[in-house]
Amino acid sequence: MEAETHRKLTTKDMARVDAEPEAERVRESTSDRPMVTADAAKVPPQVTHGNGEQRNPLFSNDEERNFRERWQNVQTGFVDEPRQAVEHADELIAEILQHLAQRFSDQRSRLESEWEHSDKASTEELRLALRRYRSFFDRLLSIQ
């Protein structure tokens, strides 16, 4: 049982429908890792695209730097421990996917909290919310 609570999150866990309990155990076991928050990290400015739409970055500069450094370590580690490097690569990808899911959930919560202040969301607020969903949808599908 002890080993199970320290198991790393994998992409297989992310694909499972019932991955939430496993993700929570992994989150608890990795709680000693320093968490980078948007307040603590340098968040890059919003990017304006050709259609005038502003997009918030998916990662802060510090988060991206951290992920890239960890990826470099994975690649370097392949020379001495190929199997372990592949396992670490899978864990890193799972963590990035989890981060994206959390970022989306946070944005959704912010939208919902704005609507709670009034009995009814205006059509304009809903239009803007749908644009944010479309932006996130397009960004996810454009990943190649």
Please provide a written account of the structure.
- The chain is mainly alpha-helical.
- The protein has one domain.
- It contains six helices and two strands.
- A two-stranded antiparallel ribbon has the order 1-2.
- A hairpin with a 5-residue loop joins β1 and β2 (54-55).
- α4 (61-77) packs antiparallel against α5.
- The longest helix has 35 residues, at 82-116.
- Residues 19-23 and 25-48 have low confidence and may be disordered.
Question: What is the assembly state of the chains in this entry?
Answer: single chain
Distance between the termini: 38 Å
Q: Domains counted in the coordinates: how many? A: 1
Q: Describe the main β-sheet briefly.
A: 2 strands, antiparallel
Q: What is the overall pLDDT average?
A: 74
- Report strand %: under 5%
